[in-house]
């Protein structure tokens, strides 16, 4: 973990043209789970300190995917360590308006399911703005909410997330520093980000009730959490730019006890992460030098071999230059390092047992379709594991289309009269459900199964483009995903067991895993977590402890540890300085990859959950990112390719 506390004259230094110091205390974590644990531990300490003096601990709480890890850790502390919440008073930040508390999208329901139902906070000590009151009662409700906070003695610790528009709570751009709890109109970006929860932007409420900026700034301590690369640009503005009504999170700079907790991805645009030499002395390593040289080449739009000493000096890289006898040695070292990472088909693995993990049924071809194609050509024994069924991302219209096809094809399918009668009854039942279905209503199990089978059929059609068939596909249908809702259950031992069993069955020498962790609802991150734990157990199974087997030496393995290839593509791409392998793609390679993506027809033209920060279709993202990677390599002076995929390799998943 890295930290930075602003110096006494931080405001002056932050406005100097040659530096961009952070203007608020910021902690950066390599592991989001460690970040959640640290925040939970801080909350637990506050609760215990208040209990010791017979006082209440007053918490301000958010919703969303970011704080779920904190809530899970607090629940664990309650169950396993006896953490008592009876002295806790809570005030939630916000709620949509109008919104029934029992609705799937209600923050009342979110908090009950993810926290309150699992700890012993007395019900009368829980406060959440209500979204089900008459319009003429909203203003009074907001005033009373502020009075309840005052009666509780103020909020001791406020936990926050940050929206892509920079909002905290629902304090959208334009909110003033002195605002209190009130009704607000939601920003367009906020509604787009919420669209998937409501199965369409048109179903997202246009208003909400939120604590004001002034209410938040009155808290004794503030913790803001952010994860994922998609939050990096707004985090940079909130942390490094002066306070502004356009980014309400930036007001936290004026709080005496506010801290930003960030994972490495969310911190990626901060100056100390992207250009650390501009804010401090750098202890140069080969990896940091590589990153700096690539940055300099891209910034100056100059190939690496053409960089001159003056280019380094004029961009505050003096200490890096002095690390080498000749600046040309530095450029050559980085250039050759990158060149040797370009791996053609004949140099890729062949005749190996390969296991490809695809979180959704289309991630394999979207993110690594080019590599996939070459693995097949090289004669590898490939198993593709589709970890979730993806049913929640299928439109009702697709089910109708397939039902219509079966109905029209009944004669060609030689359906018996009794079978046809049963089919018609079930079809009518499903059509009736669709006709009366509320937005985001959970589908019956039969409909969920039909939607899953649509995704399965598409996945098989896609790998057929690559030269495989259904015998190479494993549909794990992991338990955490099977809620029928956008929000999923936490990863449990049952999920890990499913992955572990497959590893044991296949015994792969290479596995491919999605290292793309910024998908909107965390499925990639949760699948990654399950694979990491299952792989740890799998590798432990193969290790012979001292004295356990007379025929095998102690602490040696009975089977090879698989090499892990981390791929990206659906939501983000590996930076050039991080990638271990670049796989060049010709136009024909990329066309075949796109053809495979097209087989996922239910996700074509208009996907259910495309991600609010990227309006392109998935095939367009894949095409553009692969072309951009090739162009970026070419810009550094490396060979020119039509497209390229990037991978990180490791034996121990980070």
Give the secondary structure arrangement, pairings included.
Blueprint: E1 2-4, H1 10-14, E2 25-29, H2 32-52, E3 57-61, H3 68-81, E4 88-92, E5 94-97, H4 107-114, E6 126-127, H5 138-151, E7 157-160, E8 182-185, H6 188-194, E9 207-210, H7 213-217, E10 221-226, H8 232-240, E11 258-263, H9 271-274, H10 286-300, H11 309-313, H12 318-321, H13 327-340, E12 353-358, H14 363-377, E13 381-386, H15 396-408, H16 417-436, H17 445-465, E14 473-475, H18 493-506, E15 510-514, H19 523-541, E16 543-544, E17 556-557, E18 563-567, E19 581-585, H20 587-598, H21 618-635, E20 643-650
Parallel strand pairs: 2-11, 3-4, 3-7, 4-6, 7-10, 10-11, 12-13, 12-15, 13-14, 15-18
Antiparallel strand pairs: 1-2, 5-9, 8-9, 16-17, 18-20, 19-20
Question: What does this molecule look like?
Answer:
There is one protein chain. This protein has 654 residues and is an alpha/beta fold. Helices cover 39% and strands 14% of the residues. The strands form four sheets. An eight-stranded mixed β-sheet has the order 1-2-11-10-7-3-4-6, sandwiched between helices. Strands 14-13-12-15-18-20-19 form a seven-stranded mixed β-sheet, sandwiched between helices. Strands 5-9-8 form a three-stranded antiparallel β-sheet. β10, α8 and β11 form a beta-alpha-beta unit. The two termini are 14 Å apart. The relative contact order is 0.09. The N terminus is likely disordered.
């Amino acid at each position: 973990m890295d930290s930075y506390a602003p110096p006494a004259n931080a405001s002056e230094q932050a406005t100097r043209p040659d530096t961009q110091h952070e203007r608020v205390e910021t902690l950066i974590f390599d592991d989001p789970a460690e970040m959640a644990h640290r925040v939970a531990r801080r909350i637990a300490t506050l609760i215990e300190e208040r209990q010791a003096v017979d006082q209440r601990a007053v918490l301000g709480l958010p919703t969303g995917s970011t704080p779920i890890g904190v809530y899970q850790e607090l629940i664990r502390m309650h169950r396993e360590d006896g953490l008592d919440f009876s002295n806790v008073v809570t005030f939630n930040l916000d709620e949509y308006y109008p919104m029934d508390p029992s609705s799937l999208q209600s923050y009342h329901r979110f908090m009950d399911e993810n926290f309150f139902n699992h700890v012993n906070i007395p019900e009368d000590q829980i406060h959440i703005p209500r979204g089900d009151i008459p319009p003429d009662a909203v203003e009074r409700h907001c005033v009373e909410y502020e009075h309840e906070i005052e009666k509780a003695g103020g909020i001791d610790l406020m936990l926050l997330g940050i929206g892509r528009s920079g909002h905290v709570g629902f304090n959208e751009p334009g909110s003033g520093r002195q605002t209190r709890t009130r009704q607000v109109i939601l920003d367009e970006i906020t509604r787009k980000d919420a669209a998937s929860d409501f199965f369409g932007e048109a179903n997202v409420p246009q208003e909400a009730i939120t604590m004001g900026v002034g209410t938040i700034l009155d808290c004794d301590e503030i913790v803001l959490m952010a994860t994922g690369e998609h939050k990096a640009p707004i985090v940079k503005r909130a942390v490094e730019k002066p306070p502004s009504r356009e980014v309400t999170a930036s007001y936290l700079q004026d709080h005496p006890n506010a801290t930003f907790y960030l994972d490495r991805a969310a911190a990626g645009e901060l100056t100390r992460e992207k250009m650390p030499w501009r804010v401090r002395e750098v202890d140069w390593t080969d990896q940091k030098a590589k990153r700096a040289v690539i940055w300099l080449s891209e910034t100056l739009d100059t190939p690496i071999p053409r960089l001159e000493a003056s280019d380094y000096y004029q961009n505050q890289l003096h200490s890096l230059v002095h690390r080498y006898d000749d600046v040309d040695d530095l450029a050559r070292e980085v250039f050759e390092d990158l060149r040797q990472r370009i791996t053609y088909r004949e140099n890729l693995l062949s005749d190996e047992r390969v296991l490809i993990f695809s979180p959704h049924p289309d991630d394999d071809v979207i993110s690594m379709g080019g590599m996939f194609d070459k693995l097949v050509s090289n004669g590898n024994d490939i198993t593709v594991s589709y970890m979730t069924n993806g049913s929640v991302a299928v439109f009702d219209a697709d089910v109708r289309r397939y039902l219509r096809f079966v109905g029209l094809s009944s004669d060609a399918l030689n359906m018996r009269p009794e079978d046809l009668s049963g089919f018609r009854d079930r079809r009518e039942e499903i059509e009736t459900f669709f006709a009366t279905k509320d937005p985001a209503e959970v589908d019956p199990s039969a409909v969920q199964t039909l939607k899953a089978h649509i995704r399965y059929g598409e996945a098989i059609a896609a790998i057929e483009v690559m030269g495989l068939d259904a015998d190479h596909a494993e549909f794990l249908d992991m338990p955490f995903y099977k809620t029928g809702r956008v929000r999923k259950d936490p990863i449990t031992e049952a999920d890990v067991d499913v992955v572990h069993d497959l590893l044991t069955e296949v015994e792969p020498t290479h596995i491919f895993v999605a290292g793309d962790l910024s998908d909107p609802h965390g499925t990639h991150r949760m699948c990654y977590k399950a694979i990491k734990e299952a792989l740890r157990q799998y590798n432990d199974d193969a290790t012979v402890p001292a004295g356990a087997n007379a025929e095998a030496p102690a602490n040696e393995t009975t089977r090879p540890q698989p090499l892990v290839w981390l791929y990206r593509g659906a939501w983000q791409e590996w930076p050039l300085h991080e990638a271990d392998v670049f796989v060049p793609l010709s136009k024909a390679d990329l066309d075949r990859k796109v053809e495979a993506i097209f087989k996922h027809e239910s996700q074509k033209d208009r996907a259910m959950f495309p991600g609010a920060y990227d309006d392109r279709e998935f095939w367009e993202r894949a095409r553009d990112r692969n072309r951009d990677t090739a162009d970026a390599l070419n810009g550094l002076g490396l060979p020119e390719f039509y497209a390229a995929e990037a991978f990180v390799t490791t034996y121990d998943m980070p």
